[in-house]
Fold these 2 entries.
Entry 1:
Amino acid sequence: MPIDTGRIEAAVAELIAAIGEDPTRAGLRSTPHRVAQAYSEFFAGLDVDPLSHLSETVDLAEGETGEAVIVRDIEFRSICEHHLLPFLGVAHIAYVPDAKVVGLGRLPRVVDTLASRPQLQERLTEEIADAIDRGIAPLGVLVVLDAVHQCVSSRGPRQAGSSTVTVASRGKLSETSSRAEIISLIGGPHW
Ligand code: ZN
């Protein structure tokens, strides 16, 4: 279903009125429209199949299998479904190819599509792992997300420096030893 921007605009005007502000004053007049545009962007992944980004794969030649491919620091923005506030961070993705690999630029698209929906970080991590598992059929997948949630940093506990790390793994990369090796390779300032 396409995003109904007119409905978002009406809802935002109502929200502004509900906090006791005047939605018709100069500074707020265009706000419902701007928010509707932003929401269209935030939730643009609802109608997109993440597997569509993984439809073009490259077959590996015999003997070319086995070593992990790691893409680190894929920046993402998602919206927490409990508060409709953004959470921002990076995704690190590793997979061990079996018969095929995918263009490295495809992985950030999978992340962006799944992140552009009302989300929970835990579920987003699992959904990215599932999409790669189904789309590339690798021997193993490991996904690590590290994000700062505005519902934690700007309201409630107000922990501006606190980030949340979630991990999802499939196949060979669910094994403790392989997983530890990949996590040490991901390394970097977030660890
Ligand atoms: Zn939240």
Note: The beta strands are 57-59, 69-80, 85-96, 100-102, 118-119, 140-149, 164-171.
Entry 2:
Amino acid sequence: MDKLFKVTKICCVGAGYVGGPTMAVIADHCPEIEINVVDNNKERIESWNNQDLSKLPVYEKGLDQIIKRTRNKNLFFSTDIDYAIKSADMIFISVNTPIKSKGIGAGQTSDLKWVESCARQISLRAKGHTIVVEKSTLPVRTAKTIKDILFASNKSDLGNSKTFSVLSNPEFLAEGSAINDLENPDRILIGGENNDSIKILEQIYSRWVPKEKIIKTNLWSSELSKLTSNAFLAQRISSINSISAICEVSGADVYEVANAVGKDNRIGSQFLSPGPGFGGSCFKKDILNLVYLCNHFGLYEVANYWESIVNINQWQQDRIYKKIVDSLFGNIAGKKITILGFAFKSGTNDTRESPAINISKSLLLEGAFLAIHDPKVKSEQIAIDLNNNAINHDKLQNGLKANEGSWFFYDDIYEASIDSHALIVITEWNDYKNMNWVKISEKMKRPSWVFDTRGILDKIDIQKAGINIWQLGDGGINNLS
Ligand code: NAD
Ligand code: UGA
């Protein structure tokens, strides 16, 4: 069926961090293909259609210019899912796949309800032959579920013969570098059973991706490779974070260790930056998915191995929080503490699974008053993440003691440091790299502390300004911890 098949219309269900940028790049390279990105979240679609390109729902360098070139030419954002499915030759499923919150596998496996409802809608509305592409990250063998749903509808709908072919095409973009990752991917992975369908998708990517970078596998290898890639990346972060703790007690410096280790070509230098633990919407969920699969297949030792990566990640955040409380004499109730950075990494406004959430929640529970700053994250998002609304401005004037366990968003770093006992750098934004420490020191309470969980600050400058500094993984003698 796929042999003479030509893709003229693509539909992407899910206009999120992946669906939006991925389809924008495809639209930019394939002007003759009409692409409809659809979502049942009306506000999200409205933001994608906003004339003001600074209001797009996803902040990625270069994305606004691609949207400007393609939107309403061959790229359309809409809530009319039925229409987009009906008219498409190829449908990308790019919906969210978070960890299940209840029932069997709760806290471990992916909740596939959005994928399933999407597959049902496709099975109902699609016409003729449709190539269905899994873009979401899915547990191995999800393609079988999708096929079962699609082919079941086919059987019951005898009057309207429709056919499907299912491919797996996981996305490897990282937030903050999404456009570069999409334009220059390390590889494109296409898994499937039907060579013609694979070829059709390959032709789309080969418009800008060299052929040798396009890998073709069977469906299950493709699904499992995505989980494995994320697990390996996260494993490196937990490995270096575990070493950061040894450095602190042994006098070694984790940056020197990471540099020396990374120089071995077999190891490589990427993903060896120590920090407060990995965040983002995917690492934790994808490893937990792997753990769930291993347990399901009775591979308990393998499950424990991968679960330890997530455990170290949680431990890293806990030990940072305890270090802060300890340094402030074991008591932070009513003390102002400044959080610098709330996004899970720099270059994005995404806060999903950000270490800032856990660390802030722990500090709030101890009664601290948090002054939170982030150059891209909005106060409203922080309120959702902390499940705690910011105090109003009048209350802020009523003294710190009254504000125990509450927080306020500051646009200005220097204002956020007034009367603060400690500044904690959680996200490695450039804005924090060249601050005026003398000015900050004058505003802070004494003794003043800076906790640098990303190793981005100049220790000497800070010490010269009369501030105590703790840097993650720094066991050197200048570290006053
Ligand atoms: P997201 O939450 O930002 O976006 C998903 C969108 O799908 C939401 O806007 C939601 O409203 C929509 N949606 C859900 N069900 C729908 C339905 N039935 N019909 C229409 N719309 C529906 O998620 P995301 O970050 O874009 O991730 C999507 C998938 O890609 C996940 O599986 C994720 O693991 C994977 N992934 C994400 C990244 C990343 O950097 N965020 C990178 C690679 C892969
Ligand atoms: C990650 C992968 O890098 C992508 O390839 C993948 O497609 C994506 O997950 C996904 O499946 O969602 P992302 O989560 O956007 O991308 O960001 P990363 O750059 O991988 O960073 C993840 C977390 O690890 C961040 O909190 C970051 O600060 C932390 N990190 C990263 C470190 O602590 N140290 C490092 O050396 C690298």
Note: The mean pLDDT is 94.
